[in-house]
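Dear colleague,

Thank you for sharing your sequence with our group. We've completed the structure prediction you requested, and as agreed, I am returning the results in plain text so they can be pasted directly into your records. Please verify that the sequence below matches your submission; if there's any discrepancy, let me know and we will rerun it promptly.
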Amino acid sequence: MTEPGAGFDSRGLGLRAQKKLLGKMSGKKMAKVFIDDTTGRVLDNTHRIIKEFTGTKKESEKTLKYLIKTVVKIGILYKNDQFNGEELKMVENFKQKFHSLAMTVVSFHEVDFTYDRSYLRKSLEECKAILQSLVARHLTEKSKNRIDIVFDFFQNPELLDSVFQTDSQYKDIMDLIVKDLNKMMDEGNL
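Please find the predicted structure tokens below.
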């Protein structure tokens, strides 16, 4: 099956142009167009954790850039009605799994001694698998590899342990992330 929008038609051409433009212009300023303030704060604070954990600005920016590109590309596909019925079911399944993942992150942060690395890694892997199935016929191999890179980074056992240990050096940043995650869930945006 060919990629939606691969033939020459105005709508397809517009979709390809949006995806191409996103590829050239992704960054914090471009993300602000597509991402609300609360989500922006979550991403900024996630960037801080990545930067402190890796010790390199380049790695943290690359991971966040890949994350933003993926989110925005999927948003473009969704907004342009590119998903078929089966894929729309995957979208709903992903939303439920990701919401559950966010609630787990909040719980692990707020309640001492509840952190379960294997459960969190399994939840991340399930989200990644659903997302890869969802984008299988829409995105390039390069974009699919970016999804793997982002999820593999967040599944890193050392990262997870350092973020969720009781006396974590990331506690203050996680307090901010959890506050915004709670707000997003309360507003139905996650």
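Summary note from our side: The CA atoms of residues 99 and 190 lie 6 Å apart.

Kind regards,
the structure core
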